[in-house]
Amino acid sequence: MRAQHLAASIVLTSSANAIVPKHGSEPYDVSKAAVNHLIRELAIGLGPAIRVNGIAPATVVAGSAMFPRDRVAASLRKYEIAFDEVESTEDLRAKLARFYAQRTITRAPILPLDCANAILWLAGDQSAKTTGHVIPVDGGLPEAFLR
What we know:
CATH superfamily of the largest domain: NAD(P)-binding Rossmann-like Domain
Structural class: alpha/beta
Radius of gyration: 17 Å
């Protein structure tokens, strides 16, 4: 694209964990901090025609393949959240998402659509003057909760 002088936009996905660390997830947290810096480096290296930005969502439980039933149940047990084994996986995910949401300013679960909307904005013309930035999609997690 650069060789053809075509404008383009790259959007990478980072994590709120790049800013708000969590005990026991050092490799993940550090890798996401590296993604944040990569975004800045690529913005410099690929600009001005190619814009590079990213999003940093807090935990997205709804519809996530990273949260199969056994992982959700383990998290609910860890946080001592009552649940019944007969509840559906989606109900358990919703319980866990509500728990995580209580750690944010907005108190609302982060949904895949929230991330998609931020990505669409960053990839589109409305953000044509934005590059080298990571947009939080985290409900205000860093300001609300230190873990």
